[in-house]
Design goal:
The protein is of the alpha/beta class and 295 residues long. Helix content is 41%, strand content 21%. InterPro entries: LysR_HTH_N, LysR_subst-bd, WH-like_DNA-bd_sf, WH_DNA-bd_sf.
C-alpha cells in the first residue's frame, strides 16, 4: 500500500532534482527520502528513477506515475484543509447574494482565489434586489451580500462601503419625453414611472416613487427592457443602460437641469455569525478589491 510520505518524497525529488534537495524541502533526512522512494518502487513493482548518473532521472514508468501522484497529493491536501476547517468550526459554505445592478465582471477571479485558499469551499450565487439582499443576509440564507447602500440596515449586520455606481434617468427613443427638454422634474410625474422593488414589494431608499402611475420590476435588466419598449421612464445604472446604447433604443432623458445623474454607494454586508471566520473575511477582502477597481 502506497503512503502519502512515499508520494511526497517521489514528487519532491522530481521537483527539486535530487534526494538531498527533496529532503531539505520536506525537512527530513536524506536517508528517509531514499527509503520512501525505494519502498514506493517495491510496492509498485516499478523502477521510478534511473540512478546511474549523479542526479536521479525519471524513468518512463516514473513519468507515467507522476501525474497520478500529483493528483493524489492534491486530494490529500484538500482533505487536510477540510479537516482543519471542520475542527476549527470554520464554515465552508459561501452563499453570495448580489444586486444585479452591480457589475461583477471579474467575479471568477474572486472565486478562483477563494477556492485556492480554501479548497473545501462550496459556493452558491443568488441574484436579488438590494432590499432582498438585506433580508437574505439577515436571515442567514446568504452569508455575504453585495448591494446598493440603504439609509438604514438591520442592527447587527456588518457592512463596509467599497465603491459606487453611477445612475441616470432614461427613456425609450420614441417616448414623448424625448421630444423636448424637460424643464422641471414635475413633468416626469405626468408620465409612467418604472421602478425596481423587492419581491415583497419594498422599494430602495434611493428608488423613490414620483409618478402616480408606476410599473415595477425586481431587477434592473427587466426595468431596462420596459424602458426600451417605451412603457415609461426609469432610473438605471449607467453601465446597464449604456450596454448597446445605440442599438437598444434607450436614451438619457433630455433635461434642462443637465446633471440628473448621481452615484449610489455599493456595500458588502455579512451576518456577524459568519463575518469573523477566515473564509468569509477573505471573501470580503477579495470583493473589496474587485469592486474598488470597477467603481
Amino acid at each position: 500500500m502506497f503512503s502519502i510520505e512515499q508520494l511526497e518524497a517521489f514528487v519532491a525529488t522530481v521537483e527539486q532534482g535530487s534526494f538531498s534537495a527533496a529532503a531539505r524541502s520536506l525537512n527530513k533526512v536524506q536517508s528517509a527520502i531514499s527509503q520512501h522512494i525505494m519502498n514506493l518502487e517495491i510496492d509498485s513493482g516499478l523502477e521510478l528513477f534511473d540512478r546511474s548518473s549523479r542526479y536521479p532521472k525519471l524513468t518512463t514508468n516514473g513519468e507515467k506515475l507522476l501525474p497520478h501522484a500529483h493528483a493524489l497529493l492534491q486530494q490529500h491536501y484538500r482533505l487536510r484543509q477540510s479537516i482543519t476547517q471542520i475542527a476549527n468550526d470554520e464554515s465552508t459554505q459561501l452563499s453570495l447574494a448580489v444586486d444585479e445592478g452591480i457589475p461583477m465582471d471579474n467575479l471568477s477571479s474572486v472565486i478562483e482565489h477563494v477556492a485556492e485558499k480554501f479548497p473545501g469551499v462550496t459556493f452558491e450565487f443568488l441574484s436579488a434586489s438590494s432590499v432582498d439582499v438585506i433580508e437574505l443576509v439577515e436571515s442567514k440564507r446568504a452569508t455575504t451580500g453585495v448591494m446598493f447602500s440603504e439609509v438604514s440596515l438591520p442592527a447587527g449586520l456588518d457592512f463596509e462601503s467599497v465603491g459606487s455606481i453611477e445612475f441616470d434617468v432614461y427613456v425609450g427613443a420614441n417616448h414623448p419625453l424625448t421630444k423636448h427638454k424637460v424643464s422641471n422634474i414635475d413633468q416626469l410625474i405626468l408620465h409612467r414611472q418604472l421602478l425596481v422593488r423587492s419581491k415583497n414589494s419594498k422599494t430602495s431608499s434611493f428608488q423613490k416613487a414620483y409618478s402616480p402611475d408606476i410599473w415595477y420590476a425586481d431587477n434592473y435588466y427587466m426595468l431596462r427592457e420596459l424602458v426600451q419598449k417605451g412603457f415609461g421612464w426609469g432610473v438605471l445604472p449607467k453601465h446597464i443602460a449604456n450596454y448597446g446604447l445605440k442599438e437598444s433604443g434607450i436614451v438619457r432623458l433630455p433635461a434642462e437641469f443637465e446633471n440628473l445623474s448621481w452615484h449610489a454607494n455599493v456595500d458588502i454586508i455579512q451576518h456577524p455569525a459568519f463575518s469573523s471566520h477566515p473564509i468569509h473575511a477573505y471573501l470580503r477582502s477579495e470583493l473589496r478589491q474587485l469592486l474598488g477597481k470597477s467603481s
